[in-house]
Design brief:
Helices cover about 75% and strands about 0% of the residues. The relative contact order is 0.16.
Length: about 500
């Protein structure tokens, strides 16, 4: 078995990445906008939204290793992972639409409806997400090729994640000209597009991806009492646990997506209000400002991430994962300090245009997002190679589930912290809608606005700094990585593991 052989064609690589784009669209609208929809459209209580989103996402994260364990046990004639992707696609799409549709229910009914659709969406998404991101581990046994596949697919996935934001910005900026007044209508338009297009693209993976690393089902025999359990094997895999720890400590990076629309509503105002303006005109200016600030925040995030992702394949050829992660995270932390300073001055002096000075620093601050979004998956793949080399067992789905577990737990923490910030600064969105009056962000105290702004400035920066600590102890690189790859190829050949 030639460990340097290439297995993937350009068509398969690109179409898998396009499928990742569709998945990114559906996940992004839920992770980035569901709390805003609950608070602004359904007007649900803050505490309820906090409990629902945090508990559901935490439980969803815990379910990932469970699903991974189930998937790892069997290989069907259709493949090990593709059947789960195929059967979960339509439920994910339908539930994505239902989550963002306002039926005009009472608050109690809306709370029940939100809880049911949220939990069902989480369950359906988990069933498809774990197998989908496990596919690269069986598409090729070549670690370099696998790393390149992860790099491209995660980049395209992030582009998909930006699409709901682009639609959000367009609808909010041009809401007045388009005659769209209700936020509920705006969300209905966005989610319809995302659900239909996202589903169509996501399903591509079921038809074009080939699972080449065929690991036969283990024969049914009495288990050796001295044999470690799957979970124990993973927990004892030191490199994998370091990657997991890195991901959890980096949970603040998800605030760039989860908090951007909230910051746009309650930290900055870049519109123009003149004396004598009618309520509809003021509302249009507020909507335009929200759309503009949100687009800038997510645009900076996109540029920082995508730009980094595009150059990662080049960096991977020159530097190991460890060095790339540490340098990127430190640079992001330094940039976050400057973002915080200029943003705080803009708020304190009520100078809207100063917000735009933050743009270059926000871009640099988001460089670690691109690095971690791709490199963490590649590192997990190397950890699974290490685990197989060390123990003789390869738990692809459960190993990959560790990464999706980290992603979802981090998202839960980020979403929860957004709601907690509302509580800390004493801001209840329902108060801003009292009596149907339009309340400007400039009516809030500077402390409230800076507190909200910190969610996309210093808080993610500190998270980036701290997450680099466990990476210093990660050692799968250089000659050690090459030796593992070569010896693993010989081990697989001896065990009859086929590479088609």
């Amino acid at each position: 078995m030639d460990e340097n052989k290439k297995y993937l064609g350009k068509k398969e690589i690109w179409l898998y990445s396009v499928a990742a784009l569709g998945q990114g669209m559906m996940y992004a609208i839920m992770s980035g906008y569901i709390t805003d929809f609950y608070l602004q459209v359904l007007q649900l209580p803050l505490v309820f939204v906090l409990i629902l989103t945090f508990v559901s996402r935490f439980w969803d994260a815990v379910n990932d290793p469970i699903v991974g364990s189930i998937v790892d046990r069997h290989t069907t004639r259709w493949g090990k992972f593709k059947p789960y992707v195929a059967f979960s696609a339509i439920p994910i799409s339908v539930l994505t639409f239902l989550m963002f549709y306002d039926w005009g229910l009472s608050q109690t009914q809306a709370m029940i409806y939100a809880a049911v659709t949220y939990v069902l969406w989480d369950m359906a998404y988990t069933v498809g997400d774990v197998p989908f991101w496990s596919l690269p581990n069986v598409m090729t046994p070549n670690p370099d090729e696998r790393g390149q596949l992860f790099s491209l697919s995660r980049t395209i996935n992030s582009i998909g994640s930006a699409i709901p934001t682009v639609l959000f910005g367009i609808l909010f900026v041009f809401a007045g000209k388009l005659g769209i007044k209700s936020d509920g209508t705006k969300y209905a338009i966005i989610v319809t597009f995302v659900s239909v297009v996202g589903l169509s693209l996501y399903m591509i993976s079921c038809f074009v991806v080939k699972e080449r690393v065929i690991i036969p089902n283990a024969p049914k025999e009495k288990k050796d009492p001295n044999e470690p359990s799957v979970l124990k094997r993973l927990l004892q895999c030191r490199p994998l646990m370091l990657v997991v720890t890195m991901g959890i400590l980096a949970s603040g990076r998800y605030l760039m997506g989860a908090a951007s629309v909230h910051v746009a509503r309650y930290a900055f105002f870049v519109g123009k209000i003149t004396e004598g303006m009618m309520a509809d005109q003021i509302s249009a200016e507020v909507s335009k400002s929200i759309g503009t600030v949100n687009t800038i925040l997510t645009g900076c995030s996109a540029v920082g991430m995508f730009g980094t992702m595009l150059v990662l394949p080049i960096l991977y050829k020159k530097y190991d994962y460890k060095k790339i992660v540490v340098i990127a995270c430190f640079a992001g932390f330094l940039a976050s300090i400057l973002t915080t300073v200029f943003g705080a001055i803009s708020i304190a002096k009520d100078i809207g245009w100063m917000f735009f000075i933050c743009i270059p620093f926000l871009v640099i601050q988001c460089v670690p997002l691109g690095v971690l979004n791709v490199t963490s998956y590649a590192m997990v793949g190397d950890c699974l190679d290490y685990l197989e080399w060390k123990t003789g067992y390869r738990d692809n789905a459960l190993g990959s589930a560790c990464q999706t577990f980290v992603n979802k737990l981090s998202n839960a923490l980020a979403t929860g912290f957004v709601i907690i910030m509302y509580i800390i600064i004493g801001l209840d969105p329902t108060d801003t809608m009292a009596n149907g009056a339009v309340k400007l962000v400039t009516d809030l105290s500077h402390i409230q606005r800076v507190g909200m702004f910190s969610l996309v400035s210093i808080v993610p920066g500190l998270s980036m700094l701290v997450c680099a600590i466990p990476v210093f102890f990660y050692d799968i690189s250089g000659e050690k990585k090459k030796r593992i790859t070569a010896e693993l190829a010989q081990m697989r050949q001896a065990k009859g593991i086929t590479i088609e």
